[in-house]
Design brief:
The complex is a heterodimer of chains A (280) and B (271). Chain A has 280 residues and is α/β, with parallel strands linked by helices. Chain A has helices at 41-48, 71-79, 96-101, 110-114, 120-132, 148-161, 178-195, 206-212, 235-242, 271-278, and strands at residues 2-10, 16-25, 30-34, 56-61, 64-65, 81-84, 166-170, 198-202, 215-220, 223-228. Chain A has ten helices and ten strands. Chain B folds into two domains: 3-46; 75-270, MetI-like (MetI-like fold). The chains are: A alpha/beta (280), B mainly alpha (271). The interface between A and B is medium-sized, with 32 and 20 residues. Chain B: Keywords: Cell membrane, Membrane, Transmembrane, Transmembrane helix, Transport.
Chain lengths: 280, 271
C-alpha cells in the first residue's frame, strides 16, 4: 500500500539524512524501523506525511503520489496517515477530549473546529476510542495532568480518529518505563490488527521491535542495511546496523511479565487499568 | 592558558594570564577616567547658583503644595474616569491590532518573509514613538480630547504587545504544531489548536501588564491636550496652584497603586 522508491533527503545544511530508500509496505503489516540515533528514521517517516520535504524520489500511498501534493490535496492525503510521537505531542492546555478530536481537523471546517462543534459521529467515535484505550475517566482532564503512558494513549486515539490507513509511529516508547512501553506497543499492535492498519514504527529498543513487529528494517547513515523477519536479526546484523558491541549481554527488561504475547487480546481488559497505575 | 608549574612541581591555575590581568586593570582605568571627564564637563555647564539654593526652592515648593486643597478632588473625578477609559479602551484597541500583527511577525507562523518584515516595521515604528508624542500628533490631526488619547495609547501598545507576543509565539513547542499539521488540519486550524493554546498565558499576562503601564502613561497625555487628568495637571501647574497639583499627584498615585494590585492579581490568576 505504501511504496517508497529512490527517496532521498538532503537538509539545507548539506547533511544527507537519507540516500536512495526503496521500501514497500504491504497492507496490514507492522514494520519496525531500527537504527542508531541520526540514522534518518524520523526523517524517513516525516517524508511520508511531508512534515519533511524529500529532495528526490517518489512515495506512493495506494494510488496517490504524495511528493507532488500541495495545499488542499496534501491535507486530504495526510488524513489517511495517523502519526504518533515520541513526546506524545499533545497540546498541554487543551483537554483530553479536545486533543483526541483534533484528529478530525482534516475533515471539518475552521469554524466548526473553532467552536468545537464536531459532527456527532466523530464525538461518538472519540468516546469509543477513549474507552478502548482505557481513558474514559480522564476525558475532561487537561492533557498535562496525565502520566506518560496515559498521554501516549491520548496520542494514539488522536491518530486513530483520523480513520487512517497507515500509522507513522515515531519512538512511541522512548519516554516511557519498560512496562508501560510494552503495554503501549501491544496496544498499537492490537489496534493495527483490529483495523487492518499498516504501520511504520521507529524504535530504539531492539527487543521490543523483535517482539511486536512483523518485519524489521535496519537503517544506518540514511541507507537500508537490513530488511527481514525479526527472527533473522542476529548479533552480526545488529553490528552492521549499530556498530561493534557485545550484543548478548544487553539487558532485556522482560522478566516482570511472563505472559507477554502480542496477540493475546483476551488478557487486554485488565491492561489499561494497570497502565494507569503503572504509568504514574 | 594561565597554567604554570610551581617550584615544587605542582600545577598552578590562575583565572587570567598576567597579560589579560593587566589589560583588565587598564580597561577599568580607562572607564574610570571617562566617567570623571564627563562629570567635569557637566559640572562646567551647570549654573551652580541655581543649584546652591535647591534646598530652599524645594522646601518652598513643598510648603506651597501643603496642605493639599482637598476640595479640588471633586473636580477631578470626571477627568480621572476619562484617564481610566483612555487606558482601558486604548489597551483593548491596541491588543486587537497587535494580535494579528504578532502572528505575521513570528518566524514560525508568518505566511511569507516579506510579510514578516512589514509586520516588524509596524512593531518597531509603534515602539519607537512614545505615547506622549503619538498624542501630540493625534491632537493636531483629530483635535484635543479623549479620542486622541485612546488612539495614542492604542498605537503605542501595538508595538509592545506585538513584540512580546511574537517572541512568545517563536518560543512555543514545535511538536504539538507538527502533530496538528499531521492530522491534515488547515493553516488556521493549526494556529487555533497548535499555537494559540500555547501562547494564551503569555498573551493574557502581556495584555494586563500593558494595561497597567497605560494607566500610568494616560495620566500625562492631558499635558498635550489628549484628555484625562493631565489636562487638570497642566492647568494647575500653569496657574501655579501647587496645592491643587499635590491633590492630583495623590490621586494618580492611588490609581496606579490600585491598578498595579489588580494586574498583579489577574496575572497570578491566569498563569
Amino acid at each position: 500500500m505504501l511504496t517508497l522508491s529512490g527517496v532521498a533527503k538532503r537538509y539545507p545544511t548539506g547533511d544527507r539524512a537519507l540516500t536512495d530508500i526503496d521500501l514497500t509496505l504491504p497492507n496490514g503489516q507492522v514494520m519496525a524501523l531500527i537504527g542508531p540515533s541520526g540514522a534518518g528514521k524520523s526523517t524517513l517517516i516525516r517524508c511520508v506525511n511531508r512534515l519533511v520535504e524529500p529532495t528526490q524520489g517518489s512515495i506512493l500511498l495506494e494510488d496517490t503520489e504524495l511528493t507532488k501534493l500541495s495545499g488542499h490535496k496534501l491535507r486530504h492525503a495526510r488524513r489517511s496517515m495517523g502519526m504518533i510521537f515520541q513526546e506524545y505531542a499533545l497540546v498541554d492546555r487543551l483537554s483530553v477530549m479536545e486533543n483526541v478530536l483534533s484528529g478530525q481537523l482534516g475533515y471539518v471546517g475552521f469554524w466548526r473546529s473553532f467552536l468545537r462543534r464536531y459532527p456527532q459521529e466523530a464525538v461518538v467515535e472519540a468516546f469509543r476510542l477513549l474507552e478502548r484505550v482505557g481513558l474514559t475517566h480522564a476525558i475532561d482532564k487537561r492533557a498535562d495532568a496525565l502520566s506518560g503512558g496515559q498521554r501516549q494513549r491520548v496520542g494514539i486515539s488522536r491518530a486513530l480518529l483520523q480513520s487512517p490507513k497507515l500509522l507513522l509511529v515515531d519512538e512511541p516508547t522512548a519516554s516511557l518505563d519498560p512496562k508501560t512501553s510494552r503495554q503501549i506497543m501491544r496496544l498499537i499492535r492490537e489496534l493495527c490488527a483490529e483495523r487492518d492498519l499498516a504501520a511504520i514504527i521507529n524504535i530504539h529498543d531492539v527487543a521490543l521491535a523483535k517482539q511486536f513487529a512483523d518485519r524489521i528494517v535496519g537503517l544506518r547513515a540514511g541507507e537500508i542495511v537490513f530488511d527481514g523477519d525479526p527472527s533473522e536479526l542476529t548479533s552480526e546484523i545488529l553490528t552492521t546496523i549499530y556498530g561493534e558491541e557485545d550484543w548478548d549481554t544487553t539487558p532485556e527488561p522482560m522478566d516482570d511479565e511472563v505472559s507477554d504475547d502480542p496477540r493475546d487480546t483476551a488478557s487486554y481488559g485488565a491492561a489499561p487499568a494497570m497502565a494507569v497505575g503503572g504509568g504514574q | 592558558m594561565p597554567v604554570s608549574t610551581s617550584p615544587l612541581g605542582q600545577p598552578i591555575w590562575r583565572r587570567r594570564t598576567t597579560r589579560a590581568q593587566w589589560l583588565q586593570y587598564l580597561a577599568w582605568l580607562a572607564g574610570g577616567s571617562l566617567f570623571l571627564l564627563c562629570w567635569k564637563l557637566i559640572s562646567d555647564n551647570t549654573m551652580w547658583v541655581f543649584v546652591e539654593d535647591a534646598g530652599r526652592q524645594g522646601a518652598d515648593l513643598i510648603s506651597r503644595m501643603t496642605p493639599p486643597e482637598w476640595g479640588y478632588a471633586n473636580v477631578l473625578w470626571k477627568p480621572m474616569w476619562d484617564t481610566l477609559n483612555i487606558a482601558t479602551l486604548g489597551t483593548a484597541l491596541g491588543i486587537i491590532m497587535a494580535f494579528p500583527v504578532a502572528f505575521l511577525a513570528a518566524r514560525n507562523t508568518t505566511p511569507h518573509p516579506l510579510i514578516r518584515s512589514a509586520a516588524l516595521v509596524v512593531i518597531v515604528s509603534s515602539r519607537s514613538i512614545n505615547s506622549l508624542i503619538w498624542a501630540m500628533l493625534l491632537v493636531t490631526i483629530l483635535g484635543p480630547g479623549v479620542l486622541a488619547g485612546i488612539i495614542a495609547i492604542a498605537l503605542r501598545s501595538i508595538g509592545f504587545v506585538g513584540k512580546l507576543l511574537y517572541e512568545a509565539i517563536e518560543e512555543i513547542h514545535p511538536t504539538p504544531v507538527e502533530a496538528i499539521s499531521a492530522t491534515g488540519a488547515s493553516r488556521m486550524q493549526v494556529m487555533n489548536y497548535g499555537v494559540l493554546p500555547q501562547v494564551m498565558p503569555a498573551f493574557a499576562g502581556i495584555s494586563v501588564y500593558r494595561w497597567d503601564i497605560n494607566i500610568r502613561e494616560s495620566t500625562v497625555l492631558g499635558l498635550v491636550g489628549a484628555g484625562g487628568i493631565g489636562l487638570q495637571l497642566n492647568a494647575s501647574i500653569n496657574s501655579l496652584a501647587w496645592d491643587q497639583v499635590s491633590v492630583i499627584f495623590v490621586m494618580i498615585f492611588a490609581t496606579v497603586l490600585v491598578s498595579e494590585g489588580i494586574s498583579a492579581r489577574v496575572r497570578h490568576a491566569i498563569i
